[in-house]
Design goal:
alpha+beta; twelve-stranded mixed sheet; 7 helices; globular; disordered N terminus
């Protein structure tokens, strides 16, 4: 077991720290977080598997405890397994491309005419939801249930980017100081379709990373959904690291 745990990278551990923070944030909404043998579990209070997950830390993970944890909450779920770790349960549905940077590698995006980024407030929630749901082709009601708790959470910064003073992009950063040490998880970066290729995503991501590093993060990390997104992050200083494989049907 010790050898299996040694294969976890700092970025993989930080990723689990961030999802655990999401679970704790949602405890009053039917969510929660729990560590069991070989697994760090979180639940969101939402029924969909994409918002309920466990991070595997050892091949002999206690899946019975995980099943019980999610059954109590009526939630579908999956797990993230470090690439290369032996795992014989469920079906792999995708691999998360993890990227990370340390402070010395950060290359802030240049300022661009007409593009501004600021922290979103509760008054901005509808604008954030409109951009997010359109960009990801998601149900706004489901997205509201996921994003609303972020607005007032001390550990989370939701950013709103504008282009020519109109809402154009959003994303969030989760500050953690768990098993991986002080870190920032960058997630949910979304840009309005007609505002893409204008530097909005880079400006938004850069702003969140800079804010997180100023607050003491010694690592910034994310997973890139597309090659295009990965190129944007690479220009900011992010580099690929060992990924995570997502399994369902457990």
């Amino acid at each position: 077991m010790a050898a299996a745990r040694a294969r976890l990278t700092r970025v993989q551990v930080a990723h689990a720290d961030a999802w655990e923070e999401e679970g704790r944030l949602r405890a009053s909404r039917g969510g929660g977080a729990l560590a069991v043998r070989g697994l760090r579990l979180m639940a969101s209070g939402l029924p969909h598997a994409q918002w309920n997950s466990g991070d595997v830390t050892a091949p002999d993970a206690d899946l019975a405890a995980a099943r019980s944890f999610y059954a109590e909450r009526g939630a579908d779920w999956g797990v993230r397994v470090p690439a290369g770790m032996a795992w014989a349960h469920g079906s792999c549905v995708l691999t998360l491309r993890l990227m990370a940077l340390e402070p010395a590698a950060f290359r802030p995006a240049p300022a661009l005419p007409g593009v501004a980024v600021r922290a979103a407030t509760r008054a901005d929630l509808d604008a954030v939801l409109a951009v997010d749901a359109a960009a990801f082709g998601a149900d706004p009601d489901v997205e509201r249930a996921w994003l609303e708790p972020h607005i007032d959470a001390p550990a989370v910064t939701t950013a709103l980017a504008t282009l020519d003073e109109e809402p154009a992009g959003t994303g969030y950063g989760i500050a953690t100081d768990g098993r991986a040490g002080p870190a920032l998880y960058l997630a949910g970066v979304a840009v309005r379709a007609d505002a893409r290729r204008r530097g909005v995503g880079a400006a938004l991501s850069s702003w969140l990373v800079a804010r997180g590093l100023r607050a003491g993060a010694r690592l910034a990390h994310l997973h890139a959904d597309t090659d295009g997104a990965a190129r944007v992050y690479a220009r900011l200083g992010f580099a690929d690291t060992t990924g995570l494989e997502v399994y369902v049907g457990l």
